[in-house]
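haha ok so turns out i had the wrong file open the whole time. this is the CORRECT one, sorry everyone. sequence first:
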Amino acid sequence: MSRAFVKEDDDMQRFREKATEERQLREWLVIQEKKLALLKEGPQAATIEPAKREKWIQAITKDIEQCRKALEKTNA
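then structure:
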């Protein structure tokens, strides 16, 4: 097989991997944003212990920031 075809296959494989990674990051970002919204404004948010709730909010906010940075890298 010609090296030109192998190169094209490698490029296509990298493209697919990048597209899959980006899709997974976007899905995860949506999930994390929903969690954050529920923790901040959800009807059951008041029933969670305040210290624990604040800890979860901080962790999810940090995860959202990391996810957005990763998405910026994949789009660059």
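The mean pLDDT is 89.
again sry for the mixup
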